[in-house]
Amino acid sequence: MKHTSLTPASKALIARYATRRSISATEIDSFLWPVLDPGRFSLPDAASAESRLRQAVANEERVVIFGDYDADGITSTSLMLRFFHECTTLRPHWKLPDRRTDQYGLDMAMAARLVAEFQPQLLICLDNGTNSAETIAWLRRNGVDAIIVDHHPVTTLAADATAIVNPKAHPQVVCGDLTELCAAGLTLLLCHQLAEAWGCQAKWDNVTATMLAGVGTMADAVRLAGTNRAIVKEALSLLNSPTALEHCVGLKALVPSDGQRISQRRVQFEVVPPLNALGRLDAPAPGVELLTTIDITKARQIADRCRALNEQRKTIQKLVVEQAVAQGHRLIEQNSSLPILILAHPNWLPGVVGPAASRVSEQLCRSSILLGMDSGLNRWKGSGRAFNADNLGAWLESAKAIGMVERGGGHAAAVGVALRSEQIEQLRAVAPCLPMPQTSDHEAEHEVIGEVHELTPSEWIKVFELLEPFGAGNPAPLLQMNKAKLVAKPEELALRATGTVWALKGSFETTKGTLSAVWTDVQHARLIWSGGSSHDLELELTAKFYNGKMYFNWSVIHCSPVAPI
Question: 3 in a domain, yes or no?
Fold first, then answer.
């Protein structure tokens, strides 16, 4: 292991971690410090895409880029636009759908609007288009070619597209782990191939492209192993470089500038949600303007707007979760074996129900789909999130096949859906009889990798920095503290504004040491944390640097009472 600043105990722990995950001694350095080498990847259909794009540039054709309203779509669109501006004289038009008024993806209505507004000769679909078979065929009949760069599973393949740069659409081609990439990652690799083919590597800002692809990857539900791991590790290194951030004033304005290290966790909690908030509560287009502008004043204004919208989203989401959990409990009381919860309320915003569904699934321990009324029409739109190994995408395809859903799509972990009012009760009625497929490669969200007192907190933080990014393929680390005795009455932590208790803080001791940890499951903590009780704890450790000092925070993820001997 090449990292000399690690203590011997830290190196031993990483070696043990590698062995458990079947990473050999010769592979450990490449796991900890993966090298992103886009040139070694062979993207399916990329040659066809390059040929058609070369023609469009040479003939100065009217080109439109059509993305998506989430962070993956926003970063993909920005990445592709920047490439054209940096490497060609072509200035494509671009458009993102509006979650409040448009359907997901490229449907006939959106295609007709794009044709009427831009009269394109070439349409580039990013993070959508794979399954828009009817729409792509209509575009072709009307003289519009289409290039698709997408990562969604195939249901109704748009075979009339000029190129489909989606590894999932080419099962006969050996794509390695490219099937795990999101749209931003695929766009990064495609632009790298274009830069090489067109001899414009010196003009292309691949520093910004890598940061954008990293943010899109951290935002999406993809495996953070292999190529995705390399993209994210390189992006995090760049996001922590002031010099690199100068390449993109939009990221500079959006990324926190408080002197703390920009970790994967901070990107996922402090960068991605504000960017996503645009598409959840408002129009997503300013996200692309943010990531492509060279005007720092404009960038700061948009970034401030993103953060303000995200605060609104948090407030709205909290109420949605409370109402959805109460509704879910009622459904479970009626049928405790429900494999999935179909929850609906006319006042829930379709743009907020996705993250809310994640919280509901966690609290009620089953997959959930949350629906809100779509602009007052007789139609409901929403999102679903899977619980554990449930393959929610496959389940939804089964529901579509029997006419229980008007529109829908997604993948194993997350789906988007549209229903007519009468279909809600129909779907609820059929849900208990519709088998819930399971994903074969599911991993737990967390993994215990050691005991709290094996290393000091600062040593643990260094180890975590090396092991990140965490997610599917590399679960987030927890530390165990067994037979930990609660030595004082737990302290209630309350919000200043409302007085609401949001967590309990307990002080624990073992023969190896003491620590204090907070538990946000207040109801459960009040039930089992009593004076002198002992518990087996699984803890999450985070750190924050403030006024020249590092502060460590322990959070309880799992807690099991230990019976007295």
Answer: no
Q: Are residues 384 and 452 in the same domain?
A: no
CA of 364: how far to CAs of 258, 383, 523, in Å? 36, 16, 14
Residue 30 in domain: no
53 - beta bridge partners? Answer: none
**Predicted confidence (pLDDT) per residue in 400-449, tens digit:** 889 888 888 888 888 989 898 889 999 999 888 899 999 877 777 889 99
| Helix count and strand count (H, E) for the chain | 20, 17
Instruction: Output the pTM of the full model.
Output: 0.91
Q: Does residue 509 contact residue 482 with C-beta atoms inside 8 Å?
A: no
Q: What is the number of domains present in the chain? A: 3
Domain shared by 395 and 464, yes or no:
no
404 lies in some domain = yes
Within 10 angstroms of residue 242's Cβ, the number of other Cβ atoms is 8
Element (H, E) at 287: helix 285-292
Distances in whole angstroms, Cα of residue 64 to Cα of each of 94, 113, 122, 137: 5, 12, 6, 17
Number of residues that make up the chain: 565
pLDDT of residue 21: 86
pLDDT tens-digit series, residues 61-71: 999 999 999 99
